[in-house]
Write a structure and sequence with these properties.
Blueprint (H helix, E strand, L loop, with lengths): L11 H6 L8 H4 L1 E8 L5 H11 L5 H14 L16 H6 L6 E6 L4 E6 L7 H8 L4 E7 L6 H13 L3 E7 L8 H15 L6 E6 L23 H7 L12 E3 L2 E6 L2 E7 L4 E3 L3 E4 L5 E8 L7 E3 L3 E6 L10 E3 L6 E12 L10 E6 L2 E14 L6 E2 L9 E14 L6 H4 E5 L6 E10 L15 H8 L4 E6 L6 H14 L4 E5 H4 L11 H20 L3 E5 L5 H10 L5 E6 L3 H7 L4 H6 L21 E3 L6 H14 L16
Parallel strand pairs: 1-3, 1-4, 4-5, 5-6, 23-25, 23-26, 24-25, 26-27
Antiparallel strand pairs: 2-3, 7-15, 8-9, 9-14, 10-13, 11-12, 11-15, 12-14, 16-20, 16-22, 17-18, 17-21, 18-19, 18-20, 21-22
């Protein structure tokens, strides 16, 4: 970080902190998005109000309303309270605080600005993070009387995580400390000790009084010891992060645009890079490639599009693409993984504890995910990394996450749009965390899916039936393996292509390294689910007979295949009946303490909440259960592909 002294009389701390202002042309400057942040009551709203007032960007009716509101809600006596221009909520005016994020648009002769006034209260840190997510710069205010506070440090670290490149340190309320240079230098020195570790491109301190207008748009005569530019000049000179077209091409698909049978396009905003008619592209998740036929917009066709453009791509080939897919160039693809590490800002009153399942939204992708482990927590006061088993409200941690299916992403520091995500509580629908993906935990990050010419549909047509996973779940001794075996035999007699995955059998080979702890049971089902998915892709009807005690793992298998391809069959047999049957003598050993972690005895079983079929084997003969399964497959059209091996078969 380069810096120069702003004054020949500046103290060493100030000299080390001040940044020279690079002269830029108007064309280079463009739009600057910045936020104001810091601790509560540091003067953020007042500063923006003063900027709008002094630059004469308020209409007469706004000024009249401000004068009226200042009398009713103001805190400055007979003077205008500029904070009221931003604090629009009634609760904000009554309490004199900012709660929501307030956006304002203004321009000077040299630049256009979009400013977000964000709240300082710790309770509303999530709103501050929202405002920072699209900012190029942050104006971090510090009350000259109070100095650098915990919230100042927290907001600084959050802006660093989110990728804000420039910091303007506005030491406000200098009028309340007698405009003393020593106090300014002391605050700058303390702040630089914090911020120097974070690697911002620039940090520009400025002493000011937002209320009185000192060093806001013009130099203040009350602080002759400061010779640097005022705040507005600092902002006018900063580099904005205009959409970067030099990075890899990415376009998340927001909508499949099909207004009629003659048009099928894929709509979204180009998040990075460039695309042109004729370019080859790949669907990152499936690996299917094609070329761009046309690029359509509301204003007509374009020969090419760049980052920030909202377009509809029409492709040369019929490719299976849906909302959430990410389009890229074949030679520069995003990563695809279900395990990764990320920085997480926790935003919920209830603490984050690893293991709980959430909805994870990455762009238009939505998957189930959980925090596997917290590698460390960041102390915002010292920036030290400390061990942690949980995260409380507004705490920041570096975490390992796993999702129920692979997601397409880019590391956040490479392409922010591709690495940013939120976690949503599945029951309350509240956003509980914001995250930035650092990297994948997959060992082979350069492996991408290769699209094959023979598809699942091709195999289904050849076999004469649709593929499916028949997932039999229930307690040991419930009869699920017996019924699954009979179902497969019946299907084979009908000419269907089948395969059976049985819990005992896969533990002889594929999963022979796994025991029966909760973690091993989860991994057992994950592996079986991936194998079952391959059989479905092969066009096969696969029967899977597993206790699979946890709902989350059964849901994971369901999520691996298309809707209708996973059929959950609950073999509902009471544990008393299972223990009486005890075909392998396992219940007797478990009750004697010879077998640990036995489902139903000292390990839980979570019954399916809404299975496709329930088989009650206590009073129902196996042959009747088999008939019910076969009839269900017929009703769902799985065994009714016209012209196939099973067509016309009569049970």
């Amino acid at each position: 970080m380069s810096s120069t002294a702003s004054s020949t009389q500046a103290a060493p701390a100030q000299a080390a902190a001040q940044l020279s202002v690079r002269e830029l042309s108007a064309a280079e400057r463009g739009v600057l998005r910045f936020i104001t942040c810091g601790s509560v009551d540091d003067g953020k709203s007042t500063l923006i109000g003063r900027l709008l007032y002094d630059t004469k960007l308020l209409f007469e009716d706004q000024l009249a309303a401000l004068e009226r509101d200042s009398v009713r809600h103001g805190t400055q006596g007979k003077n205008m309270d500029f904070a009221l221009l931003l604090d629009g909520l009634e609760a904000e005016r009554e309490q004199g605080i900012t709660i929501d994020v307030a956006y304002r648009y203004f321009a000077t002769d040299k630049r256009k600005f979009i400013v977000a006034d964000t709240p300082g209260h710790e309770q509303y840190t999530r709103n501050m993070a929202t405002g920072a997510s699209t900012a190029d710069a942050a104006v971090i205010l510090v009350d000259a009387r109070k100095g650098v506070l915990t919230q100042t440090r927290r907001h600084t670290f959050i802006t660093h995580l989110i990728g804000v490149r420039h910091i303007v340190l506005a030491v406000n309320k200098m009028d309340l400390v007698g405009y003393e240079q020593a106090r300014f230098d002391e605050i700058v020195s303390e702040y630089m000790a914090l911020a120097d570790k974070l690697g911002f491109e620039s940090i520009s301190p400025v002493p000011m009084s937002a209320l009185n207008g000192d060093n806001v748009i013009g130099r203040s005569e009350r602080m002759p010891w400061y010779s640097g530019p005022p705040l507005l000049a600092q902002l006018e000179a900063l580099d904005g992060s205009e959409a970067d077209i030099a990075t890899a091409f990415r376009m998340p698909v927001q909508w499949v645009n099909r207004p009629n049978l003659d048009f099928r396009g894929f709509s979204g905003q180009v998040s990075s890079g460039q695309i042109a008619v004729g370019d080859e592209i790949v669907v990152a998740k499936s690996g299917r490639t094609t070329r761009v036929k046309t690029i359509s917009t509301a204003d007509g066709p374009l020969p090419s599009a760049s980052a920030g453009d909202a377009v509809t791509l029409v492709l040369e080939d019929e490719v299976d693409i849906s909302r959430g897919d990410v389009l890229a160039k074949p030679d520069d693809r995003p990563e695809l993984s279900s395990q990764f590490v990320a920085n997480i800002l926790w935003m919920n009153e209830e603490k984050l504890a690893p293991g709980r399942s959430y909805l994870m939204k990455v762009g238009a992708q939505i998957v189930q995910a959980s925090v596997k482990a917290i590698k460390h927590r960041v102390d915002v006061n010292t920036m030290e990394q400390t061990p942690a088993n949980e995260l409380a409200l507004n705490e920041i941690g570096f975490c390992e996450l796993t999702s129920n299916q692979p997601i397409v992403f880019d590391p956040y520091d490479a392409i922010p749009e591709g690495g940013a995500f939120i976690l949503v509580d599945r029951y309350s629908n509240q956003t509980v965390a914001a995250g930035m993906i650092s990297h994948s935990l997959s060992r082979a990050t350069n492996v991408h899916k290769h699209a094959m010419d023979v598809t699942q549909d091709d195999r289904s047509r050849a076999y004469g039936h649709k593929p499916a996973i028949l997932w039999f779940t229930g307690l040991s001794g419930s009869g699920k393996s017996t019924i699954a075996n009979l179902v497969e035999r019946r299907l084979a007699q009908m000419g269907a292509h089948t395969y059976s995955l049985d819990g005992d059998n896969v533990r002889q080979g594929l999963n022979k390294d796994l025991g029966f702890s909760d973690a091993d049971r989860v991994e057992n089902i994950r592996r079986v689910g991936e194998v079952a998915k391959l059989f479905v892709d092969a066009g096969t009807i696969v029967t899977a007979s597993f206790i699979s005690p946890f709902k989350s793992e059964r849901d994971l298998v369901r999520s691996l295949v298309k809707p209708g391809e996973y059929i959950e069959i609950f073999v509902d047999t009471p544990i008393t009946v299972c223990a009486q049957r005890d075909p392998k003598g396992l219940y007797k050993k478990a009750m004697a303490g010879e077998i640990k972690n036995f489902t139903g005895i000292d390990s839980p079983y979570e019954p399916p909440e809404s299975p496709e079929l329930i088989l009650e084997t206590t009073n129902e003969p196996p042959e009747v259960s088999v008939d019910r399964v076969i009839n269900y497959l017929r009703e769902q059209g799985i065994l009714s592909v016209s012209g196939g091996a099973t067509a016309g078969y009569s049970i």
